[in-house]
């Protein structure tokens, strides 16, 4: 997964488990990540964590 600069990844279920870990991994490799999930507070926390470490993240709440 090297060379993710300039790529955008959309991760559904990003607020926990595999989605959270995938979001962090892709962002750490240079991808811009768009996080989608139901729980706003976890989305905000993850986006802030990624941004604080120099990554690019945005999110959208995706209610069922």
What does this structure look like?
By secondary structure, the chain is an alpha/beta fold. The chain has one domain. The protein has two helices and three strands. Strands 1-2-3 form a three-stranded parallel sheet, with helices on one face. The model has no long low-confidence stretch (mean pLDDT 93).
- Count every beta strand, where a strand is a DSSP E run of 2 or more residues: 3
Shape: globular
Order of SSEs: EHEHE
Query: What gap, in angstroms, lies between the N and C termini?
Result: 31 Å
Set out the fold topology:
Blueprint: E1 8-12, H1 17-28, E2 32-37, H2 40-52, E3 56-61
Parallel strand pairs: 1-2, 2-3
Quick synopsis:
With 64 residues, the protein is α/β, with parallel strands linked by helices. Helix content is 39%, strand content 27%.
């Amino acid at each position: 997964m090297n060379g993710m600069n300039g790529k955008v990844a959309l991760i559904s279920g990003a607020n926990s488990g595999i989605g959270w870990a995938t979001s962090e991994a892709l962002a750490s490799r240079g991808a811009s990540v768009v996080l989608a999930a139901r729980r706003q507070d976890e989305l905000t926390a993850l986006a802030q964590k990624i941004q604080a470490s120099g990554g690019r993240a945005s999110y959208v709440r995706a209610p069922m």
